[in-house]
Known about the structure:
Layout: H1 6-11, H2 28-31, H3 45-58, E1 67-69, H4 73-78, E2 86-90, H5 97-101, E3 106-110, H6 120-133, E4 137-142, H7 151-167, H8 169-172, E5 179-184, H9 186-192, E6 212-215, H10 221-230, H11 236-248, H12 255-258, E7 275-280, H13 289-300, E8 305-310, H14 328-337
Parallel strand pairs: 3-4, 3-5, 5-6, 6-7, 7-8
Antiparallel strand pairs: 1-2, 2-4
Amino acid sequence: MNKTTVRELIDSGKYGIFADYFWTYITEDHLERALDSYGYEATGMKLGLDRCSELADSDGRNGASYMQYIYSRQEIYMSHELSETKLFFFPRKKETELSKESEKAFALVIPGGGFARQWTLIEGFSVAAKLNEIGISAFVLLYRTAQKGVFQKALKDMYRAISFIQENAVKFDVNKERYIMGGFSAGATLAGEMASDNLGWKAGNLPKPELIFLGYPAQRMDFFYQIWEKAPEGSPAKLSMSDFLELLIPGEITKEALAPLSLEDHLSKEICPPLYLTANEDDPTVPFINSTSLYESATSKNIPVMTKFGHTGGHSYGLGIGLEVDGWLDDAISFWSK
């Protein structure tokens, strides 16, 4: 059990620049909570922390060389909010059979946080650390959040991140044409769009991902709209859902405005890469139907898809160590490599 608080972790000085981004837009109540309350064991937090510590110690600059701004200085000067967008590089630890067979393919990992913040340590750094162990270099994307209608900006950040990696593939020692990617919760909403025929890799003029893994994705926008529409005015449910939906779309909340973001309605066998889905039935944040419905839609369209679902384990479990979904990332990589 780990009783260290989030504040103590961040202030420890052990993790260099990474510590500043373990959680973005974190509030005081979260800072005083113990790591155990975030699933220290299940999320694989220690694995992520150890890797951040290694990288922070490796360059003499507290790990600063592993954080990249993906927009140019001129672009950031013209629009300062672009400085919020960052890419953390986690180089593979060693060459493995997988890195050789995949010709140094890379992975892009996108943490969630309801488009209001990002749970980077749990759903980014720890996952990247696990990928490093099996020979895959990984990048963790921090995209723009906490603005009304920010989804389209986050989508642009995701496109730019992939282009940035391609442009700097030699420096990162990765194959610019071969990659997998995935995300969690809101990050899965974003990553999943790369599989769509309206906002995906083709629309972004990018190479096709070889696999997209999605942890507890929020993608049934009609379902979220129904919750919002039926909730009593002024109720906590109404206010909470309004906050979420207003981050996705600008202006009035309508079913029509949300429709382009319903991933399962924009899948085609020609565009969609193989998908890997993981989620728990008892998820209190993103209803399980989001994952099961996506699986059924992909299957009906003959899109290769694999799942690892659990009965219990809730939301934001990252690697899911010790849960029914334990080993999902290894399964996803095996699915990809085959």
